C-alpha cells in the first residue's frame, strides 16, 4: 500500500501547472500561490538519491522562489530523511495515513438541515475555499487563482464537495485528487467552527469517498490532523496504514 500511496502523490504533483522533474524528485509548482502546502516535492519510487541530488533539488526550489519542502511515504525512500537533515532540512511533522476501501466505507446520514453537493459555480467554489482557509487559519477569502485551482481539480477528474445549510450558505468543504492507478487522496476537509461536532465532517468525508468509489477508485487515503479528526475518519471506515514525512528547509 505504501507504494500505491506514494505513486498517487507523484501523480498529483505532476498535475500542478508547472511540475518540474529534478533528478529523482518531482516538484509540484503552482506559480499562482506561494503556499508551502501546494508547492513541494516528493521522491520517485525506487530512486537512488545522492547528496548532489539534494543540492540540485534545493537549487531548483530557489530558482522558482519557493521553500524547499518534501512530503513522502517514508518507507519508499528509507535513507532520504537523513540526507535531507544533513543538508539542513528540519522535520515539520510525521503523520500516519489512513486508507479506506469500498468494503470498509460507512456512509452516515447527512445531519438534518444540511445538504452535501458539488460546487457548480465559481461563487460556490469561492464559498468552499473561504471555509477551508478559515478552518486552516488563513483569511476567509478566495482569490481567482484559488477558484481556478478548485475548478482544475474537477476538470481533471477529482471530486470536490461542499455542505450548505438551509439558507444555502457553505459551512464545510473538501476534495479528492484526480485518481491515479485506482488511488486518490481525500484532503482539505473543513467545517466552520460554529457547525462542528454535528456529524458534518464525517458525512462530507464519506460522501467524497463514496463518489470516488462510484467512479472506480479502489483506494482512498487521507491524513488526520488531530485526535478529533482521526476519530471522524475511523468512524467512516478509514484505517491507519502507513507513515508520511513532512520536511522543509526554511
UniProtKB/TrEMBL annotation:
Tagged with keyword Transferase: yes
Domain called N-acetyltransferase: residue spans: 115-250
Alphabetized UniProt keyword annotations: Transferase
GO molecular function annotations of the record: acyltransferase activity, transferring groups other than amino-acyl groups
Entry-linked InterPro entries: Acyl_CoA_acyltransferase (IPR016181), GNAT_dom (IPR000182)
Pfam families in the record: Acetyltransf_1
Name used for this protein in its record: Acetyltransferase (GNAT) domain-containing protein
Gene source species: Micromonospora rhizosphaerae
Amino acid at each position: 500500500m505504501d507504494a500505491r500511496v506514494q505513486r498517487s502523490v507523484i501523480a498529483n504533483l505532476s498535475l500542478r501547472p508547472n511540475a518540474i522533474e529534478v533528478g529523482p524528485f518531482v516538484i509540484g509548482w503552482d506559480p499562482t500561490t506561494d503556499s508551502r502546502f501546494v508547492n513541494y516535492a516528493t521522491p520517485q519510487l525506487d530512486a537512488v538519491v545522492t547528496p548532489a541530488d539534494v543540492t540540485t533539488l534545493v537549487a531548483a526550489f530557489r530558482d522558482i522562489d519557493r521553500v524547499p519542502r518534501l512530503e513522502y511515504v517514508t518507507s519508499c525512500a528509507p535513507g532520504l530523511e537523513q540526507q535531507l537533515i544533513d543538508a539542513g532540512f528540519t522535520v515539520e511533522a510525521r503523520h500516519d495515513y489512513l486508507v479506506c476501501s469500498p468494503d470498509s466505507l460507512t456512509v452516515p446520514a447527512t445531519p438534518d438541515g444540511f445538504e452535501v453537493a458539488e460546487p457548480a459555480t465559481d461563487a460556490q467554489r469561492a464559498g468552499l475555499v473561504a471555509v477551508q482557509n478559515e478552518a486552516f487559519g488563513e483569511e476567509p477569502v478566495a482569490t481567482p487563482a484559488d477558484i481556478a485551482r478548485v475548478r482544475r481539480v474537477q476538470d481533471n477528474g477529482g471530486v470536490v464537495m461542499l455542505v450548505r445549510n438551509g439558507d444555502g450558505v457553505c459551512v464545510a468543504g473538501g476534495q479528492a485528487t484526480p485518481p491515479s492507478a485506482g488511488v486518490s487522496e481525500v484532503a482539505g476537509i473543513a467545517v466552520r467552527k460554529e457547525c462542528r461536532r454535528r456529524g458534518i465532517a464525517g458525512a462530507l468525508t464519506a460522501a467524497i469517498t463514496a463518489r470516488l468509489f462510484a467512479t472506480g477508485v479502489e483506494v482512498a487515503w487521507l491524513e488526520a490532523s488531530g485526535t478529533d479528526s482521526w476519530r471522524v475518519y475511523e468512524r467512516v471506515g478509514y484505517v491507519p496504514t502507513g507513515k508520511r514525512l513532512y520536511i522543509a528547509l526554511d
